[in-house]
Each structure stands twice: as C-alpha cells, then as structure tokens.
Amino acid sequence: MFRWHVVSAVFGRNVKQYFSGPLGYLFIVVFVTICAAMAFSPQFFADNQATLDQLSLYFPLLLLFFIPAITMSVWADEKRQGTDSILFTLPASDLDILMGKYLSVAAVYTIALLFSLTQVVVLEILGNPDVGVIVSTYIGYWLAGLALLSVGMFASSLTGSATVAFVLGSLFCAVPVLVGYYFNGWVGIERFGFSWNLRDFTLGLIPLSNIVYFISLTVLMLYLNLIVISKRHWSRGQQVSLAGQYFVRAASLGIALISIAFLSNNAVSSVWSRVDLTAERLFTLDQATMDTLEQAKSDDRRVTVQAFISKDVPRKYVNVKKQLEGLLRQYSEYGGNNVDVRFVDVQPNSDAALEAQQLGVEPEDDRSEIGGKTVEQQVYLGATVSSSLGDVTLPFINDDASIEYELSRSLASTVDKSKQITLGILDTDAHFGGPVIEGRRIPWSYARTLEELEKQFKLKRLGADELGSYVPAEGEAELQTEEEKSAKKSTKKAPDVLLVADPSSLDEPSMANLISYIEAGHPTILLTDPLPFFWTFQNPVSIGVLNAPQQPRVGSRSPYSQILASSQMPKSDGGSASKLMRAIGVKWNSGAAAWGVDDPHPGFKPTWPEYIGSRWPEYYGPQDKAFVFIRNRGENNAFDASHPISSGLKELLMFYPGSISKSADSEFDFVPLVSLGTQSGSTPWDRLTKTPVQTSQLLDPRTGRITKETQPATSQITMDPLKVLEPFPSTRLDDEEKVIAARVTGEGKSKIDVVVIADMDFVSDLYYSQQEALGEKLDNLSLLQNSIDILAGNEDFVALRNRRATPRTLEKLESVIEEFRSERAQKQESAEKEMLSELEKEQKKLDDANKEIQQDANIGFFEKLQRTSQEASDSQRRFDLKTKRLDRDLKQTIAELDTRESQQISRLENKARYLSILSAPLPALFLGIMVLWFRKVNEEKGISANRRV
C-alpha cells in the first residue's frame, strides 16, 4: 500500500524544484509555442478545418524531445548532487518515492498541456470546433505523455548526468514513437506505435484498447525503474541471480501486459470498448439499426453476415476495417442468436478469396508505400447478408462513414422485403439507366450511381409510353378502399418513385404521359439541367455542348443518334418543358446557369481526361462557374434544416446547375431544399456558349485570287453547328435567391409529390472523379438517395445515411474571404460592363458612318453601296482589333483581380497564424513572471532596509 503522505511529500518537493527557477516556465513556453506552430501550420488554413489534426500528426515527435527534457533530472540530478542517499534513507519505500517522483513529472506535463489549451481558444475564435473531439484528443495527448514520462524516468535512473539522461530518454522514447512512422503500412507492427494508438482519440473516441496500451507501457517502464532504484539492496553475491530473477519477472510482466492489450483489442465487445464523444455520435449504433435488429429478433428470422476482410490492409483502409469489424460485433451482440456474424480472413489466391468472388465480393487493387517500397496488393473489404428472403452483397466498402448505413440497409432488405423500394427510371435523351444497343443495355455516364442505387433499391427501366398504364382510368381515382381499387384492376402498380433525368428532352406524347403520371399522385424526381456538362467534359473542342434544352434533339443524320436520342420527334415545347413546369407550379429558365461567390476549396484542382491537356481548358468556361460548391456558411443556410431530405447534407458539388422558383400562380407547396443564397448570379445561354468559326481559303481558278470564307464549326457528334462554352462569359451578381432543389407537393385533387433538382451532372461519373480529386466526401449521392427514400415514405435510414461529422470550418476567416471574393466579383462585373460599353461605342460609330453615307444626297446608289461596303470592312477591322485589345485587357484585369484576391487571403491567413502562435505562450509567460515576482517580494520581506541594494 502507498503511504500517501510520503508520496505527496516527494511530489511537492519535486514540483517546487521544477518551478523554483525560470527554466521550468521556459520549457512550458517553448512547448506551448511549438504546439501552436504545429497546430496552425499553413496546411491548417489550407484544410480550412477547426481541428487539431495538424498538431496530432506530429505530436508524438514533439513528445520525443519534450518528455526527456522534463524527466532528465528526476534521478540524474539526485545522483550527481548525492541527495539520492539522503532520499533513500527516509522512512519511505522505494515504490513511494518512485510514485511521488512520477506524479510530480506527470503534474508538470499536465500543467504544460493545460497551458496549450490556448490554441483551443483560438479555434473557438476562428471557427466552431467539435468539443467532444477536442476533449478526446487531449485525453489521448495526456495518456501518451504519461506513458513516455515513465520511459524518460527509466532513462534518468540509469545515469548521473542529466545530459546523458536526455539522450537516453530520447532514444528510448523513439522506439514507440517512430514505430508508427518507420513501419507505416505494416499494421501488425504499427499497432505498437504511438501514432496508431493516438489516432482513435483524435477522431473523437476514447477506446479501451488504446488506453490499455498506454497504461501497459507505463506500468512496465515504472516496474523497470523500480528494479533499477532497488539495486542498492542487492548484496554482491546475489547480483547475478537477482538480475536474472528480475529479468524473468519483467519479461513475464511484459508478456502479461501485451496479452491484456491484445485481448482488449480483439476480444472485448465493441459496444463497451470505446466511448463516442463526437457531436453527431458517429460511432454509436443508430436507432434505425437497432430497430432492424429488433425486428430480426421478433420475426425469429436468422440472418447470416459474412465479412470478407484482408488480414493486412493498407493504412488508408485501416479505419474502414476497424469500423466494419466493430460494427459487426455490435450487430452480433444486439442481434443475439438471430444474427450470425462470420469473419473470413482473406489472402490473395486462397480458397477464401475464391469463395468471396463467387459471392460477389470483389477485391480492390491498391498500390501503397510500405517501408519505403511501393507494394501492390489486393484488398478485400466486402460482406454478404443473407436470410430466407434473399441475399444482398456489398462488393467493397471504402468509406468508413457509410458502413453502418450500407450494412443496416442490407440487413433490413433481408429481414423485411416490403422495405425494398422500387425505383423506376424513365428513358430520356440523358439515358440515366444506360442506352440499349442491339438489345443490350450498355454502361453510361451514370454507371457508378446506378451501382450504388442497385445496392439499396430495386431498379426498373421504363419507356414513356408505359406511364399511361400507371394512370387510373376515369372514375378510378375516386375509389376509396383498397378492395375497390383491387377489384377495378385497370392500372398496374407503379414504382414507388420515378426518376426522370432531362424531362425537357421528351416529345409531346411522352410529356403528356409524364404530366398525367405526376398529377395522378405518383412520387417523381425530376433532374433538369440547362447545360449537361458531362459530354462537354469529354472533349470540348470537337464534341461541345450536347443535349442541352436550348439545343434541338440530335438528328437521324448523326451516326450517334441511336445512343443520344430517345425519340425521332421534336422536343416538347422546344425543350423548355414549360407544360411540365406549369403542371407542378415551378418556374425554370431552361437557358440560364447559376453560380455562387462562395469557393470553399480555392486550391482545388479538378481532374479531366489526360488527352485534353494539363491546364484547365478554356472551352470548359470559367472554373468557378463550372464547379459550384454549395454548403452552409455564416448566415447563408444552403440546406433546409427542417426537411429530412436536406437536413443532414453538408456539402454538394454541382456542374453548371440551373435554378428554380415557385410560379406566381402556383397553389402547391414549394419547399426549397438546396439554395445558393443571395451571393449568386446567373449566366444566360447566349453569353454562356458560342459557336466557333472555321476559316478556309478558296482559290478562284479564273482570276487566281485567294479569298477567305468563314463558317460555323461543326460538331463531330451531331453534325450540327458546334456549341462550346464561352471562356469569359459576361456574368453579374443579381442578389436573388437561387434555389437548386425543391420539393413540390399538392393536396386534394392535385396530389402531386415531386422533387426537382436543377442539375443532372451532380450524380454522373464526373462527380465521383472530382470527389476523389478533392479528397473529401460530398453529399451529392445522399441528396438523390434521401429524395428517393422520403418520396417513398421510408424515413428509417435517411438520418443514418446523413451521419457525418459536421464540417468545422474557419467561419470567421471565411466571412472575410467572402467579402474579398464578392469585391472581386463586382470589380470583374464592372470590367465586363466597361468592355461591353466600349464595344457598343464602336458599333455606334459604324452605324453612324453608314447612316451618314445613306443620307448624303450627292452620292449615287452604287457609290453608296461601294462606300458602305468599304466603311463596313474598315470598321469591322477596327472593331475586331478593338475587341481583341479589350478582350486581352479584360483577361489581364481578371488575372490581376485573382492575384490581388489571393494575396489578400494569404495576408489574412498569415496574420491569423502569427497572432495564434504569438498569443499561445502569453498565459504561461504571464504566470511565470507573476510567480517569480511574488517570490522575490516575499524573499525581500525578511531583509532590513539598510541591507538592500
């Protein structure tokens, strides 16, 4: 048993020694300053996240030098000064003295860590950090430091020199610290390093297995420390035997602690093995999951889950593997005997790998750097869920944020088939379900989205002529009871939800069928788009813009009409879909693309086909108009928090979206789900696109003169005039709310239920490539899936799908940066207006000159014609030169505005960074100065006035 009065006496003595001079405070000031420099690095501002991720990345390396600085004098100075003999002659056990000293260095480290909380204050000023994540992160920092303190004390006990103790302490601490860096990728070894065991704490978890690791290391090193200071009790004749005996004891203790750590990491149920402190409880089972497991119990239905997981996975999949295994253990516990979970360790080319592939679980080929070498390996992270009602396969899970949703949704579909939603996909020119060539449906631009939808929904492709069979005949709509409706049997059961991508491409009969279908009360999702960007993205020079509402349908003379057109008839309403929009009470400009000032990822470099080149192609249009990021920011609530479709959305990426609004005469409820806010604008079709001209030289064989002839460029796909995007379209802020998505519902006879989203590209394959380039999860697919679920009346899994950490951005900086960007947009708009004004003046000069010639009565008709032609030629040449000069000046002005904006943002971020770093050590400095001043005052109280200097 500890004698706490002895422990506290040793503790107080050592703490006072540490803070008796300025050196202790200096260490704390240095520690806090370095912490702030790491936390607020340039990458911190580039990430735009109010977190301590940058500090967590290098915190173990910081401890590698700071901990030995604290512990180097604990035993070494006692030996050097000879006070250890006095200390050990006190009526106290070695363990009491050891614990007193350990608690003293732990107190010093804790005080230093508390002073580093100034950076949390800075985070609160700059943004809105997750308090739970901050708390768990600091608990991880504290436990890691406590473990290394025992290592540093052991090093100090081996020598009488503080310098040697510091070096030895750094070397000993380097073993657990550098394991995670040097053996990066070797999971079996890496789990014994500090980085591995600190990671979960930085995510917002307090995991039992990692606590056991830090405590085990602490206990082992303190025991070794105790052996070293107890050597003085050994007699000369027993040195060898006692050393061997204590070696066996230490080895046995080490094996026991490793075993406990192993069991805590693998055998302890995940339900009790960690505490989730995240604000959204991301690592706690959702109620929808609990209800599904309860239903499996109540129905007494046995469900088997087989998880095929590679034994060793690359580092980027470690969290996915850990989350998958942890969730399945919870499923097994809550499901009891009704949920049988089987884990299968998969090695490449093994029987388990063959079994996985036969069940539909596919490996992912991965190239990772392990131990300084590039290693290629196949990674298995899939699962199958099966019951008597059917099977569901998850081929590969690569996102730890969606694991519970995918598992629970799969489990629900095997427990109760009635919960599986049927999604109808209407054939249009967009071919969302993929075009049919020679009776075979081929992959298309929405292939990856279809794969995701097929995991959760039953897909059914429909032609527009089939919609009439789902519309009640006259008099049938008035039937009230299910018995009456089933007796009539004149209509088929419609899909739970109908998805219509590009309704503006429908011909007149198809549009009439769609309107009747919607007015019959069938839930429908409409994806409208003023400019389908996916095709332009493939090859802007030769393909250009395709299938836009403002363009005619691809004609039969095009060799690609079979896969680009769903009908040979003209588009209804010329592609404006005006009849459809009137029927649902929505106003939509089919020829205007919306854009916003907000740019949350200024350093984002999008990806595009390699054959186009390494630079952003000018025929994509301006990047900030092509890629429209949407998220909540400041007072701009981009997502309706009260509606289940949009309440959980964090950030979307649209591609030249349109905007919608409620018609003035509409009687339907119009609920905006996603909007750009008032800091936005729109670009009309005639300014957004242009038709390039081709110049050819013709030789007149009679005269031998060469003449130039210009004509519109032709699309290689449609054989029609080519439409490309204007590199510098004239745009303006209009301070109007741009609604990108909305739900429209009606009551009474008009029971329409429609979700309108003014973009189609947001779930095309283009979106997935940009999400990978960005390196962050976006909610585009969630917006579509949420819409399907809510329209089908199934809200069980919407909240679960939306469970993601709320982006904790640097809101204060963002508000200032938004002002910079708004100012830049206004100046750019002013420059564009000035250019247009100059061009109008030149045009007026030409018109005035022609008018003057025409009004001159002294000139004959042919002379007027000749002079008009000459004046037109000269004026056109001047106009072209003026246009080129103004266009060059505009480009230069825009480049200067962009540069000035970047400089303003850089200065702002540097100012915030330096202020954060400089303010961090101020509390420690102030306290140190105050303590030393009070000490000096107290010392001078006992000195007579005539003896003071």
Helix/strand-derived category reads alpha+beta
Share in β-strands: 5-15%
What composes the largest sheet? 7 strands, mixed
N-C termini distance? 52 Å
Sequence stretches where pLDDT stays below 50 over 5 or more residues: none
Radius of gyration: 36 Å
Shape: globular
Write down how many β-strands occur, each being a DSSP E stretch of 2 or more residues: 28
Summed up, the helix count is: 32
The strands making up the biggest β-sheet line up spatially as 12-9-13-14-28-27-20
Mean pLDDT: 80
Helix share bin: 40-55%
Index terms:
four-stranded mixed β-sheet, 949 residues, alpha+beta, 49% helix
Structure description:
- The chain is built from 32 helices and 28 strands.
- With 949 residues, the chain is of the alpha+beta class.
- α9 packs across α10 and α13 packs antiparallel against α14.
- The chain starts with a helix and ends in an 8-residue tail after the last helix.
- The model has no long low-confidence stretch (mean pLDDT 80).
In short:
This protein is α+β, with helices and mostly antiparallel strands and 949 residues long. The strands form ten sheets. A seven-stranded mixed beta sheet has the order 12-9-13-14-28-27-20. The model has no long low-confidence stretch (mean pLDDT 80).
Layout of SSEs?
Blueprint: H1 4-18, H2 22-39, H3 42-47, H4 53-71, H5 76-81, H6 83-88, H7 94-115, H8 118-126, H9 131-156, H10 162-182, H11 187-190, H12 194-203, E1 205-207, H13 208-229, H14 239-266, E2 274-276, H15 287-298, E3 303-310, H16 318-335, E4 339-346, H17 351-358, E5 364-370, E6 373-379, E7 381-387, E8 390-394, H18 403-415, E9 421-426, E10 436-437, E11 440-441, H19 447-456, E12 457-462, H20 482-488, E13 497-501, H21 508-519, E14 524-527, H22 533-538, H23 561-564, H24 578-584, E15 586-588, E16 592-596, H25 623-626, E17 627-631, E18 651-655, E19 660-662, E20 669-675, E21 680-684, H26 685-688, E22 689-690, E23 693-699, E24 706-712, E25 724-725, E26 732-733, E27 739-745, E28 753-757, H27 765-774, H28 780-791, H29 798-801, H30 811-855, H31 861-919, H32 922-941
